[in-house]
TrEMBL record:
Organism whose genome encodes this protein: Timema genevievae
GO molecular function ontology, one term from the record: carbamoyl-phosphate synthase (ammonia) activity
Catalysis performed (reactions): hydrogencarbonate + NH4(+) + 2 ATP = carbamoyl phosphate + 2 ADP + phosphate + 2 H(+)
Gene3D superfamilies assigned: 3.40.50.20, ATP-grasp fold, B domain, Carbamoyl-phosphate synthetase, large subunit oligomerisation domain
Protein name: ATP-grasp domain-containing protein
Swiss-Prot/TrEMBL keywords: ATP-binding, Glutamine amidotransferase, Ligase, Metal-binding, Nucleotide-binding, Repeat
Domain of life: Eukaryota
Length: 722
């Protein structure tokens, strides 16, 4: 027996013919669509006939697919035949739609109980036009470019759909909206929680999954308490007095010969969510969250390319920034990108009025350091305010612990009693950092709570459990950054001194919301960095220099492990064998070293995740290429070259130590030889092909390293045996 929506109401939303028929019977519109489902060559002929009937361009997609798998746009028969082959590799049904590429895409999240009470929880608007999958698009909540009439027209249609389908629970409805007329089509209905539902829940503070579970059990909406305000019910529509921006994260640079074009099929591996009082503020925050090496809407990251503006890639936003800097008109940008002029104007504000700048961006303008800018800002009383996400735009008293920082305010929404323990999350999912670190962060929060400690979580990933507001006492949906010593020698064409910037007519008052801002406001008992993966480790020394209290392994020891030169030198000092190595000083000495020890050699940058820019060089040409790549990702830390051992066994050690004494450890054995990253390798635990003598040596080495680094907390090592 199932609870919630009946199979009659849920199956039509994933069966296209039934779904379209139901929507049309509700006097609502769907795009012209033809489904082909016969086997063999006949399906291609059906698809071609459908395209002729609908007229090119058309969209081809596989039925019952996730993330737009196998979909795309065709302008002629040849392109359609190619797309059809891709789609049919994933499904026996092929859907041909009339193309609405370039229209606006808008989503509504709606809930309904068994007693026909309906509310819309959130509406979201894609910055990118239709044609780019919503999972690949920048998304803004609430919508920014709809008129009041358009907003209510789509809201009414959404409620009509959920009632007509008989959905009890949550429903996601996606629209294509004509940018030049009051015309729309319903393009997708999901009678379930979806990726967009998770974003809507985090954007509004409305606990969609919790409410959907209650509704499935037959509880009426007015009887469900709003756990955010503590005083109202769940039968209300959230009001937002802030702007939320979601940006996807791609890791396409990890792969060779992979197209960087983005479109109707998803390629992103994660997403970030930023909150601000203005679009410019939230947009720049989100860009920094998406890539910690980016300082914001930077016009110097990419060259101008009209082709890249028209056919978007994962870096299109930076091409757009360059085009704005080069004085492209809003109309010209709209013609190329089909991004709404409102968003383009807001992006232009960032470049021309310098809105939403971080400390690092200001430092680049005046050729100074982020730390100096930060200190100057604090000396002049320019600090952020803590605001609540309360779902009711401060119209009702709220007890919410869901927080963000902004300079667009005049007072804090909360008081700061102190006594909390701060835990730093893992940030955006990427290749090499995914749900495993969030699992660690959640485990840490739960244990601290069990010990009676009040907790603060800092994270910005809407896909995580750690950003559920009931996991901790205070949740900051904020950036995890503090690049204190970074300088940038690019010429931004600015010739203002620091105080001129602060006193300008449009002051740069939207600075990076770093961990230290939260730390200074909350004055916690300490910060836990060791459960969030690489990102918290990268800011350990900067926090330490600002006298932040770091719990667990000291930042100096973290640096001793992350810094390849320091770590290799430590191994030599304590007598642990390692392949011959040398710190990179220049290309000539690197080539001489490799010639001396013999190729292949391993290039090892410091402070990197998932083996970024770590490569095995077999020739001097390889070495030169890989050293440049390693220097790019490890600008402020040394790169080490070591002899690469062929046909060696790789072994992983995961352990916990207290004051340098190992408390427990586990050994995993790689099936593949050394050279395959542990994230890509097949691991076996307990090890099956390691003799007792080798295991004893592994234990001795682990204890020696833990003692030398005075580890307190978890640590991981990779060893090779030959």
């Amino acid at each position: 027996m199932s609870s919630g929506s009946s199979s009659i109401s849920t199956s039509p939303s994933s069966s296209l013919d039934s779904c379209c028929s139901l929507i049309i019977s509700a006097s609502l519109r769907v795009p012209q669509t033809v489904m082909s489902s016969s086997a063999g060559c006949g399906i291609f002929q059906q698809a071609l006939e459908a395209a002729e009937k609908l007229e090119y361009p058309v969209m081809a997609r596989a039925a019952f697919s996730l993330g737009g798998l196998g979909s795309g746009f065709a302008n002629n028969k040849e392109e359609l035949r190619c797309l059809a082959q891709q789609a049919l590799a994933h499904s026996s049904q092929l859907i041909i739609d009339k193309s609405l590429k370039g229209w606006k895409e808008v989503e509504y999240e709606v809930v309904r109980d068994a007693y026909d009470n309906c509310i819309t929880v959130c509406n979201m608007e894609n910055v990118d036009p239709l044609g780019i999958h919503t999972g690949e698009s920048i998304v803004v909540a609430p919508s920014q470019t709809l008129t009041n009439r358009e907003y209510n027209l789509l809201r009414t249609a959404a409620i009509k759909v959920i009632r007509h389908f008989g959905v009890v629970g949550e429903c996601n409805i996606q629209y294509a909206c004509n940018p030049n007329a009051e015309e729309y089509f319903i393009i997708e209905v999901n009678a379930r929680l979806s990726r967009s539902s998770a974003l809507a829940s985090k954007a509004t503070g409305y606990p969609l999954a919790y409410v959907a579970a209650k509704l499935a059990l037959g509880v009426p909406l007015p009887d469900i308490k709003n756990s955010v305000t503590g005083s109202t019910t769940a039968c209300f529509e959230p009001s937002l007095d802030y702007c939320v921006v979601k940006i996807p994260r791609w890791d396409l640079s990890k792969f060779s010969r992979v197209s960087t074009k983005i479109g109707s099929s998803m390629k992103s591996v994660g997403e970030v969510m930023a909150i601000g009082r203005k679009f410019e503020e939230a947009f720049q925050k989100a860009l920094r969250m998406m890539d910690e090496n980016v300082i914001g809407f930077d016009p110097y990251v990419k060259e101008i390319s009209d082709d890249e503006l028209e056919k978007p890639t994962d870096k299109r936003m930076f091409v757009l920034a360059a085009a704005i800097k080069a004085n492209y008109s809003i109309d010209r940008l709209y013609d190329l990108t089909k991004i709404d002029r409102w968003f383009l104007q807001k992006m232009k504000n960032i470049i021309t009025k310098q809105l939403g700048f971080s400390d690092k961006q200001v430092a680049a303008c005046v050729k100074s350091t982020e730390l100096f800018i930060r200190n100057t800002r604090e000396e002049n009383g320019i600090t952020p305010f803590v605001k609540q996400i309360d779902t009711v735009a401060a119209e009702w008293p709220a007890t919410t612990n869901y927080l963000y920082l902004t300079y667009n305010g005049s007072e804090h929404d909360i008081s700061f009693p102190g006594g909390h323990t701060m835990v730093i999350g893992s940030g955006v999912y990427r290749i090499g950092s995914s749900v495993e670190f969030d699992w660690c962060a959640v485990g840490c929060l739960r244990e601290l709570r069990r010990l009676g400690r009040k907790t603060i979580m800092v994270n910005y990933n809407p896909e995580t459990v750690s950003t559920d507001y009931d996991m901790c006492d205070r949740l900051y949906f904020e950036e995890i950054s503090f690049e204190g010593q970074h300088t940038n020698d690019k010429d931004y064409g600015q010739h203002m001194v620091v105080m001129d910037i602060y006193n300008a007519e449009n002051p740069l008052k939207y600075f990076v919301k770093v961990v230290m801002d939260i730390y200074n406001a909350e004055n916690p008992e300490g910060i836990v960095l060791c459960v969030g993966g690489q990102l918290p480790n990268n800011i350990a020394m900067d926090l330490h220099r600002q006298q932040a209290r770091i719990l667990g392994t000291s930042p100096e020891s973290v640096d001793g492990a992350e810094n390849r030169f320091k770590f290799s030198r430590m191994l030599d000092r304590i007598g642990i064998s390692q392949p011959r190595w040398k710190e990179l000083t220049n290309l000539k000495s690197a080539i001489e070293f490799c010639n001396e020890v013999g190729y292949p050699c391993l290039v090892r940058p410091s402070y990197v995740l998932s083996g970024a820019a770590m490569n095995v060089a077999h020739t001097p040409q390889d070495l030169e290429t890989y050293l440049k790549s390693a220097s790019d990702v490890s600008k402020e830390h040394p790169v080490v070259i070591s002899k690469f051992l062929l046909e060696a066994k790789e072994i992983d050690v995961d352990a916990v130590a207290c004051d340098g004494i190992v408390v427990c450890m586990a050994v995993s054995e790689h099936v593949e030889n050394a050279g395959v990253h542990s994230g890509d390798a097949t691991l076996v635990t307990p090890p099956q092909d390691i003799n007792p003598q080798t295991l004893a040596k592994i234990t001795t080495i682990s204890r020696a390293i833990a003692a030398s680094l005075e580890v307190t907390g978890p640590f991981n090592m990779q060893l090779i045996a030959k």
